[in-house]
Amino acid sequence: MRKLLTLLLMLPLLALAAADLEINTPAISALQSSMQTRHPQLAPYYASGAVGLTRDGLVAVRDATAVPLKDRQAVNSLVSAENTDRNALYKEISVANGHPEWEAEVRATFAQRWMQKAQAGWWVQEAGGWAKK
Amino acid sequence: MKHWIWLAAAGLILPACVTINIYFPAAAAEKAADKIIDEVWQLKQDQDKEAQP
């Protein structure tokens, strides 16, 4: 009886220990490394302002004229592949933590952190529209 | 007396469980996001390289 009570009192401690979100799953690692491999290709377009970070945690072609005509298709493909990975990442994180309904909040958190960590000169989508960091 | 202890324990523990299961853990999510973004954009490594002479 006393042991059981002690165990019950320890439960909140266990809950505290689990306060980190689970991000070490094979699916999340795979998405992460896919995005990491793609980043060097996207980075010049962030810097030139051709591609910007959106409020919904994705990337978008902001100014296609900043890209030479011959490269535009490649940029579109990069952006599309990146967004596929990002959407999957937000979904995987919420599912891995047993709360698929958290996806929108995970996305909003990422959107804010991507923008926060963006380099000076990159374009981010704020409430009022595109802004240069 | 024993019943009182059980009630008190339940009163303390149950709200804690409910809180953790229902509400989105914003701070933990930010931490997770930072970790992943640092990896994807290689931010931590860049800082290490800059720190080296």
Percentage of residues in DSSP E strands of chain A: 5-15%
Q: List the domain count of chain A as a whole number.
A: 1
Q: Uncertain runs of chain B with pLDDT below 50, 5 residues or more?
A: none
Main beta-sheet strand count, sense and barrel state of chain A: 4 strands, mixed
Task: Catalogue the unreliable spans of chain A.
Answer: none
Number of distinct helices of chain A: 4
* First-last Cα distance of chain A: 60 Å
Helical residue percent band of chain A: 55-70%
Structural class call of chain B reads mainly alpha
Q: What are the secondary-structure elements of chain B, in order, as H or E?
A: HHH
Helix content of chain B: over 70%
Q: Greatest contact pair?
A: A-B, 27 and 28 residues
Q: Helical element count of chain B?
A: 3
Shape of chain B: rod-shaped
**Radius of gyration computed on alpha carbons of chain B:** 21 Å
Average pLDDT over all residues of chain B: 77
Separation, N- and C-terminal Cα atoms of chain B: 68 Å
Largest sheet of chain B: none
Strand order of the largest sheet of chain A: 2-1-3-4
- Quaternary organisation: heterodimer
Describe this structure in words.
The complex is a heterodimer of chains A (about 130) and B (about 55). With about 130 residues, chain A is an alpha+beta fold. Chain A is about 60% helix and about 10% strand. The termini of chain A are far apart. The relative contact order of chain A is 0.15. The mean pLDDT of chain A is about 90. Chain B has a domain at about 25-55. Chain B has three helices and no strands. Chain B has helices spanning about 1-20, 25-40, 45-50. The radius of gyration of chain B is 21 Å and the shape is rod-shaped. The interface of A and B includes residues 9, 35, 39 and 110 of A.
